[in-house]
# Entry
Amino acid sequence: MNRRELLRKAGLNAVIGAVTLKVVPSLAQSSTTESTLIGEIGANHGHEIPTITGEELMALARDLSDNETTKVDIKGRSNHPHSILLSKENIGALLIGEELELVSVGGSHNHTVNLVLEKN
# Structure
């Protein structure tokens, strides 16, 4: 599956030069992506990245409007909550193989979170 197909399945925009194409997702298509979200959490003390597959990320992206984010809980074994917010654009970047650096939300402090979608 190439990048354009991944973006189309996730219902994301494809940018080609200065032209942005809005890709309309087909909800009937199923993903053949065999990948899992992995990451590192800076200054970590028990927080964990949950198991999310590439297929699940595509489904999340299809459900988001352009302005929305989805909250991913990274509390893990820690005694306090933290989350990261993923936008449709963030998910698109992960699906085409880019690494993301985000900052967690919630709690009295935050963590830098690096994410990548790894092929299984």
